[in-house]
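Task 17 of the worksheet. Students: predict the tertiary structure of the chain below and write it out as structure tokens. Keep your answer in the requested format; marks are given for formatting as well as content.
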Amino acid sequence: GKKRRSARNLASVARLLVGVFMGQIGGRVLGSKGPPPAKATATTTSGPKMRSEAILGAGCYWGTEKFFRKHKFGHGTILDVKVGFAGGDSKNPTYRQVCSGTTGHVEVAWIDYEGDEHMYGEMLKFFFSFHDPTTMDRQGNDRGTQYASVIFVKDDGQRKVAEHVVADLQSAMYQHGHRFVSKKVVTQIRDWTTFYPAHDDHQRYLEKHPGGYCNHRFYLSAWPGSDDPVPIEAMGQ
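Model answer:
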């Protein structure tokens, strides 16, 4: 009798221990007691994330802002976009002053972004997809120095990537068909400069006025150059 009771007690203890152990495992696997699973993201980065900024001019800044706000990038995320002016001689120019063509400023989008070392190159390839980089100081019917195609680079890393992407596009344009006006890329690569935000009504303008003016469109359905990654090593330094 004592042996049978002892055996039953040992079996009960064993079942209790197994139950506790499996409950802990179940909590981790099924999420009944463990932390919730991490949410999947659209970003497929290949390295540590870094935060940086870009200033790009592609004609009328309303369309440039819209295209960058709506696009989903594979190597990072656009955190914010503001429209304004850069590259001129005077401080805090007004929209009317810039439109006169006398200040030397360009309509640009300032872009705050986060991503891996390939994000900046991906952004520049997208930048070239929705405006014509072969027309000097002109996009469609918009003419003037304020509508120049320009990349303002903040460090050597951005400059190397910009030069690589421009050279890659230029080489591909001699070999493949495209919708640009000519075959000569005239996009300027200029040193970083002060960004002057435009007035509030021009921020997110095409969201406030969905039928507002926008002469941007896609010229490239896919990047015509090489598919080689374009890493940036000095980003954020």
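Marker's comment: The beta strands are 50-58, 76-86, 106-115, 138-139, 142-143, 149-153, 188-191, 195-197. The radius of gyration is 27 Å.
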